[in-house]
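Note to self: the last two entries modelled the partners one at a time, which told us nothing about the interface. This time every component goes in together.
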Amino acid sequence: MNEKIRKRPVILDGDPGHDDAIAWVLAATADEFDIRAITTVAGNQTLEKVTYNARRIAALLKLDIEVARGRNRPLCSDLIIAPNFHGETGLDGPALPEPDHELSSLSAPEMMAKVLQESEEKMTIISTGAQTNVAALLLSHPELKEMIEMVSTMGGGLRNGNWTSGAEFNILVDPEAAYTLIHSGVKLQMCGLDVTEKALVYPEDWERIRALNNPVARIVAEWFDFFFIHVKSLGWSGATTHDPCAVMSLLHPEIFDIRDYYVDVELNGKYMRGATIADYNGILGKEANCHCVVDLDREKFVDYLIQACAKFEGWEVNL
Amino acid sequence: MRKIPIWIDTDTGVDDAVAILTAVKMEELEIVGVSAVAGNTSQENAFRNARDVLALAGRKDIRVYPGAEKPLLRTLEYAEHVHGRNGLGNAEIEHSDAPIEEKKAWDALYEKARELKGELVVCPVGPLTNIAIAIALHPDIVDYIKELNIMGGAADGGNVTPCAEFNIYADPHAAENVFKSGIPVNMFGLDVTMKAYLFDEDIAEISSYGNKASDLFRDSTGLVYRIRQQRKKQGLCEHDSCPIVYTAHPDWFEGHKCGIYVETQGKISTGKTVTDLWTDFKYEDRHCQVFLDLDQPRFAKLIKDAYKSYGEENN
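The predicted structure of the combined assembly is written out below.
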């Protein structure tokens, strides 16, 4: 019991997705974390598909947690999905165990509110999809902001986008949700493309993961295999390992370069809707509202990832 | 050696004056026309300053044409805190007595471009209003301009807003029009111009030459230099000289092929030059180059040498 209280209580909110899945593997192996909830959001694929994936990942990682699903669309936008990266299922590639827990009867933001209300200490939300659920939580339960230690999110890009010339995918899916979060006053750490496009995992790196030869490591390697098919076609020499940055920057902040800026989200715009714009030079004279992660020690990132996968030695998976 | 014919479209402007005085002394270039546009200062000031600066350079023969008095759609705020009330940092110089041209910038530019049969290089260093009007009025001008070497924009960052640079922000609709016109565009935005330093020792050296050009340099740069010092930044950045120097020395600059569009409908990002340089998403239209770096020592030396060469004539 005492052991548990010392751990950092976290909520995993995402749209798995290969890189969400790898982020969750990392989170599940972290002794520092106590995972209190898993919630899903539409994005990389439809809500139904990513929720099924989340439940299969929970079964793979033997997490004794009910998954709660969010809404099937963003706050205001029409849903966009990324089957080019993640396939028809949203998590194409290796076979996974079937879900072994019921789907929660609570919605994702209800589940978040419940675990925050029940918690004796502040919690960290790790958001690796659109911020739809987090925004719904903040809008419906503003009194729970004080129970949030921090939101660590993968999203945005100070210098560039990826899905459009201005915007990164997660923010573009639900710019209004990102806007709500960034202006909420909640402590926010953002891993944008500035860092995640430097978090390159090369084929030889995930061959080291595969060579660990435990069931989860083999699956992680196969997720990389699949994800890299499309990433490679865009000209990248390694897999842009986006979502794991949101977890790794909590576990090992010392290997990241984190800068504090005032950041805003463009909600309008012909080219810039969904762009995250940082005031590098303080032109607006506003206080910083975001810890922006902009660079990392790639080698150490890969080493920690491999160490996490090595923890599944002797793991049994029922396919 | 055959000189490159260039046209300078300017909102003259402290650093515009440097660009003009430098261009005059570059033996690779022949300035075949200058046009004025509202931006740093009013069109009226810009027109007068361009004429006066050319007269100071001993080149009253170079014709200066009046241009747009305001942006296509937006209301302009002049940059008086940098360029002073008169556009030249409140420095006073003798007025030119050259004949005053009545012909408008967009017509004069078009005629010159046709006359030169596609050889003309246009260097707009202010808002792109005149160029946009020229394209709208004379659509076939796109076939007669070799390239547009533009000072404006920023692939990353901004100076008026967190993501917009002054010249583009001043008239984003004109800029969007020009970038999409099909004319090859080389964009010298803040990414490169903020590296185009004259350091304190360069400034001191130029100011010591004791000719009319260097006196103007000394007297006009006081306002902007003090702002830079307050912001704890070294030296001065010669934004507008970048496209001019590039025209003669392209190998001193590092450019990347890309597409560039201009945001005109943003709530906080209007005036941003949106490039696909670093994004997985690519525009269909990629006829632009964005410049990110330059050989600063050679750039600074060229400007210093240009100013020094005025001494021989004036003293």
